[in-house]
Every structure is written in structure tokens, then in C-alpha cells.
User: What shape does this take?
Amino acid sequence: MLIGSNSQSAIDKLKKDLSSKFVIKDLGKAKKVLGMKIERDRRSSKISLMRKRYLKKVLQKFNINSDMKYVSTPLAPYFKLKAPYFKLKATMSLITVEECEYTTHVPYASTVGI
Assistant: This one.
């Protein structure tokens, strides 16, 4: 069980209540959960979950490597983006026959996670 709270006393109380009914073992601060790495930034009160290994597997599956160019994900129009972000343009579409041929073999649904 993973317990999180901004109140240490609440965590201690919950652990005490659980230990009165169950045999529990405190494993300390979580470093991973469900295959995701947990990083804490206590100064800014942020917690980040990272799935680098999973993303690397997905990129390898679709033959995407570090030489590939990338673009930022398009956002809703009410988001204001500042440099270095840019919007997708028609000139970025597939141009060569080889590019079009390559994309016909990529299973779209699994690429976008459907």
C-alpha cells in the first residue's frame, strides 16, 4: 500500500490504525510504484512519476531513435506558447514517397495508445 499526505501526523495515525488490525511492514519512502519511478522535489512541493523504460520500449517498437526530429504536441488554442515551441504546419507533412511508404506499415492505433 502506498500512503501519501502532506501531514506526517495523518500518515502516522493511519499506520498505527492499520497495524492494530493487520501485520504491516513499513518499507520507507517509495522509489517506484507500478513501474514508475517517483521523484520528489520538496522545495517546490512537487512529485513526478517517470516511465522512461516504458517509453524507450515504445520508441524501439516503432523504430524511433535519437536521430529523429521531434515537435511539441499541439495544444488547445487557448494555451499561449512561447519560444522555443512552435505550431505544426502543413510544410511539416510527409513529402517523399519513402516517408509515405514507411508510415503505411506503422500500426496507428498502437502508436497513439488506443
